[in-house]
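User: I'm writing a tutorial on reading structure tokens. Could you give me a worked example: one chain, its sequence, then its tokens, then a sentence or two explaining what the tokens reveal?
Assistant: Sure. Here is the example chain.
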Amino acid sequence: MKKQTVHIYLSTLALAGTLLLGGAGALHAQNDADLLRYSLLNPSGSPRFTAMGGAFGALGANFSAITVNPAGMGLYSRSETSLSGSITSGNGMADYYGETHRDNETRVNLPEASTLWMLYNKDEGKGLKRVQMGIGVNRLNDYTGAYLVSGFNPQSSYMEAVAAENYGAIVPDDHQNYNTLNAQGDLAYNAYLIDVDNPTGYVSTFLQGGNLNQYKRWYSNGNISEMAIAFSANVADKVYIGMNFGIPFVHYYYRSTLGESAPAGARLPYDFRSYELGERFSVSGAGFTFKIGVIYQALEYLRIGAWFHTPTYYALNEDYMVDFSASMMWPTDDDGNPLPGSPSGETRSEYKYNIQTPLRAGAALGFIIGQYGVVDVEGEIVNYNDMQLRIDYDWRYEQQVNQLVKDKYQVGGVLRIGTEWRAGIGRFRAGYAFNSSPFRDKTISQNWANHTFSAGVGVAFGRWAIDFAVAYYLQKENYYLYNIVDAQTYAPLVQPARLTQNKLVYNLGFSVKI
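And here are its predicted structure tokens:
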């Protein structure tokens, strides 16, 4: 055990809202937040689909519509090829201890590319009239975003959370060479920002009590893009059926820097000035899902759509890195010799794991107003408490995460409304989409929002069409830099950062009927 001059034990503190792995064993980068990231979807694709808020469950005749209801492909009467590109700008704003800061991340994307063939086409008679096959890629989610959180925290230090996370840990000493600290704990321990008492398992930090300048800055990018192989059929221009074999590919990258510094004039042990903790991780992998749907032409002006999506099963690979550096006077022993350790360091881990995202089911009403326009209203149910994590090497941790999911999440819903109106060769569109809160806790849900507002225009001339769309995504949540409460009152010892993300997507696409 290292000898430090100051020992302030965390006997009055406890973690809240995170998983405590008894004894603070090996680091696990996967948690319920990862499951939600790949389960909460905001699909986009062609400009027409994007402009109408993705509300195509009873309309169809757009390849991106198969991400919702694959029966929509049955309304095609000719083969078609399409391609779309977009620019996404994620603008993050954060309020923390009275300070407001903004940050931005911008990316260029390819949200949709597809080709559809008519396998069978018979205009005359009754019965089966058309059979279609389509292959393409649609965007299910985009992770472009950036935030800067900064403020003076008079209540606590992140090092208190690190200490509490590692409560009960064992570190190398004269009797053994075993280390059970997690990645952040090991780096902080080697920099003398936390200390561990092997016989008792107490972990301490001289930064207890806060009164520190804190900041965290992070960026993310990536997406889930689904390669779809879909088949559909048109029966008597009355019933349209379809199925979609989907292979979604995950690409997600995140990097952050969290730091704390002593205010001017502060006198702390070891003449502490500041430290920075960096995290970087990238996730890649693929999955499988199956979707089936139907659209029924109930009346000349009314279509009814319904669909079902199986859970998506992903196999993911994660590369996780943590680096650390501290600015302080290095501690010495009684003879004035520097103690072992390092004010800087890094650790890297690789993980392989599987996840299951929720099944989905929905229904839609589509209204056809002659040759002038269409309106679609639809709803979808998503069972978020059915998300699951699979880790072959640690079934206990797997059970903890999956139980947390059942306790923390609920069945959610999605509402989409879209419309398109025609004037000559012009097309004018608007849409709205809303994801309800996946959280059971009402306090969390009250501070959580996920809305999409969209609009677009298009020009159709002969077999060619050019479309443009703008989508505005509004997301809100309360975010804790770390989770720690007073053990006596259970009051949080850190205020949440109030995050608002305003994401703009500019989408341009071309399509040609063959």
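What the tokens reveal: The chain is about 10% helix and 55% strand. The CA atoms of residues 3 and 333 lie 8 Å apart.
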